[in-house]
């Protein structure tokens, strides 16, 4: 990962650099790069500690839980990093029935979780009416906040699901660098993904995006631009995780993304975006050990327990070595309570809507507390 032609300021102290990034991110391109390139342990800790104080000020000490159900691993795409890509013939494909999803949602509801994330591969065959019906059933039976994450779809489909009661949508941009993007996706355009994100925000979804750190050819400069894009779009939720190589993909031999760089990116993004909900992603929990507690101390305020039934869980193999894959979900919740408690925080069971002031979440179906 090269530093290119960046010019560094040798006059400012680390605290001054961080303060400038906090106050004026748009004009702090070199300073953001400098923070991402910190190598000294105590300096990195000072960066994390500032991000942690921004998280404390804007999000409080609660760690929100979002239950995820990976309802299908079918995919029509071929992202070169992802084990679900359609060219991977080494996994059995599954789609859960609506009743199976409702059972999983019932289980999370009984554990007091108030948000469900419905995620799948980007399946061209996914029936939009079926998903709309499922969203309505979840809202009617359990009243949970519903987050959809099924990839790039038409404005019409996004509208249908929004009207069915979906509150939120997750679609990571992954990288905003056109070359890195085209080198890691067959047949897909960065522009279409960005248009989807604009469509989602326009439809009043609480919109989540985010990054993959460590993609082939991704330089520090492009991560700086990614962070400024996340800031400009004012996303409600931002997930940042390291690339983990999967043996059945074209990127099988690529080195895993650097966890430390991922944590620095998370910290700078917290400092720059201030009040977005940011998960300690499962990928951070699955890359050479579980680094989720570190992420919670570097700006993150969300954990995502997995409620996919165990017979399907191992087939949702985006990347290998996924954290907690054999864990029972009740153990998983107490483990998350343990993680939060170990750093003086607590699990927050509230619905955890966006706290951005410039959006109105008053469509039918939204829950207020
Ligand atoms: N089909 C949906 C959901 C994708 S899976 C969509 O297109 O949005 C969710 C996330 O997993 C992706 O956004 C990506 O950031 C992450 N992911 C995929 N492959 C990965 C890998 N090899 N290592 C780490 N994260 C990966």
Structure commentary:
The chain is an alpha/beta fold and 369 residues long. It folds into 2 domains: 8-55; 62-346, TIM Barrel, CATH 3.20.20. Helix content is 40%, strand content 12%. It has 13 helices and 9 strands. The chain binds S-adenosyl-L-homocysteine (SAH).
**C-alpha Rg (nearest Å):** 19 Å
Q: How large a portion of the residues is in β-strands, by DSSP E? A: 5-15%
Which structural class best describes the helix and strand composition?
alpha/beta
Number of strands: 9
Terminal-residue CA separation? 45 Å
Shape: globular
What is the averaged pLDDT score? 93
Give the second-level CATH assignment, the architecture of the largest domain.
Alpha-Beta Barrel
Helix content: 25-40%
CATH topology title of the largest domain: TIM Barrel
Tell me the count of domains: 2
Order of helices and strands: HHHEEHEHEHEHHEHEHHEHHE
Number of helices: 13
Strand order of the largest sheet: 2-3-4-5-6-7
The largest pleated sheet is described as: 6 strands, parallel
Low-confidence runs: 362-369
Key structural traits:
369 residues, alpha/beta, 2 domains, six-stranded parallel beta sheet, three-stranded parallel beta sheet, 13 helices, 9 strands, 40% helix, globular, disordered C terminus, binds S-adenosyl-L-homocysteine
């Amino acid at each position: 990962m090269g530093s290119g032609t960046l010019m560094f300021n040798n006059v400012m102290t680390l605290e001054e650099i961080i303060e400038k990034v906090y106050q004026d991110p748009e004009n702090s391109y070199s300073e953001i790069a400098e923070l991402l390139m910190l190598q000294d342990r105590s300096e990195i800790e000072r960066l994390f500690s500032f991000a942690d104080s921004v998280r404390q000020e804007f999000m409080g000490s609660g760690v929100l839980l979002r239950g995820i159900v990976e309802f299908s691993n079918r995919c029509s795409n071929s992202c070169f990093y992802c084990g679900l890509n359609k060219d991977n013939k080494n996994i059995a494909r599954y789609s859960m029935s609506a009743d199976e999803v409702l059972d999983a949602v019932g289980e999370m509801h009984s554990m007091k979780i108030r948000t469900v994330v419905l995620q799948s591969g980007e399946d061209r065959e996914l029936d939009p009416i079926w998903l709309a019906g499922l969203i309505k059933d979840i809202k009617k039976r359990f009243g949970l906040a519903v987050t959809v994450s099924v990839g790039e779809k038409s404005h019409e489909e996004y509208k249908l699901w929004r009207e069915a009661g979906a509150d939120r949508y997750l679609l990571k941009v992954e990288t905003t660098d056109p070359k890195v993007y085209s080198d890691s996706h067959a047949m897909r355009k960065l522009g279409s993904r960005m248009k989807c994100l604009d469509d989602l925000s326009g439809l009043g979804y609480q919109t989540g995006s985010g990054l993959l750190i460590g993609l082939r050819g991704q330089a520090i400069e492009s991560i700086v631009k990614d962070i400024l894009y996340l800031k400009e779009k004012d996303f409600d939720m931002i997930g940042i995780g390291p690339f983990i190589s999967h043996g059945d993909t074209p990127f099988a031999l690529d080195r895993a993304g650097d966890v430390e760089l991922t944590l620095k990116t998370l910290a700078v993004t917290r400092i720059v975006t201030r009040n977005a909900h940011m998960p300690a992603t499962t990928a951070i929990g699955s890359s050479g050990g579980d680094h989720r507690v570190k992420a919670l101390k570097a700006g993150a305020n969300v954990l995502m327990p997995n409620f996919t039934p165990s017979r399907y869980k191992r087939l949702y193999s985006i990347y290998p070595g996924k954290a907690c894959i054999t864990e029972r979900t009740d153990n998983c919740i107490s483990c998350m309570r343990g993680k939060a408690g170990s750093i003086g925080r607590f699990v927050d069971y509230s619905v955890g809507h966006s706290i951005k002031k410039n959006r109105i979440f008053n469509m039918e179906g939204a829950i207020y507390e």
